Amino acid sequence: MQIRKLVTLEEACRIREQLRKEGKRVVFVNGCFDVLHGGHISYLADARAQGDVMFAAVNSDKSERALKGPSRPIYTQEERLEILDAIRYIDYLILFDDLTVEPLLRALRPDVHAKGTDYTKDNVPERAIAIELGFETYIAGAPKENSSRDVISTVVERFGGLESDKLPADR
């Protein structure tokens, strides 16, 4: 399947320049988005409401594995991009290998960088670059009630000891 919203960083920078000329407010979000859940959707919807166009930077399999351990990702980068491509709040997707989004923030210089509610404006890892470059940090989404880790733990707890032929049927 073709991922329509996927752009390279170079393409994203060209798009960003055009949007700047048009006076559009650009929002930037980032994450692994592995085992997508309702908290992700709340985050993306709230973030998108802060501007006219939203870029979502997605950790590659390599960077997610480095950040979260050898058992991750659950979904490949291609699967995660395909899922995110279907979400209406996202205008553009960027896949990245780095462990931080600082290079992308420096290149794109968004108006708003939205982070989830597991952060505050004072403890986001990108706080220093936000101050340096002058973009807004916005804490988006409903208070965090679950995480991908929680979803994975629930699945393992409920079905971890079952053989695949004993799992509940897909309907």
TrEMBL record:
NCBIfam families: cyt_tran_rel
The species this protein was found in: Sumerlaea chitinivorans
InterPro entries the record matches: Archaeal_FAD_synthase (IPR050385), Cyt_trans-like (IPR004821), Rossmann-like_a/b/a_fold (IPR014729)
Record bears the keyword Transit peptide: no
GO molecular function list: nucleotidyltransferase activity
Every Cytidyltransferase-like domain range: 29-131
Pfam families named among the record's database cross-references: CTP_transf_like (PF01467)
Keywords: Nucleotidyltransferase, Transferase
Record SUPFAM superfamilies: Nucleotidylyl transferase (SSF52374)
Protein name: ADP-heptose synthase
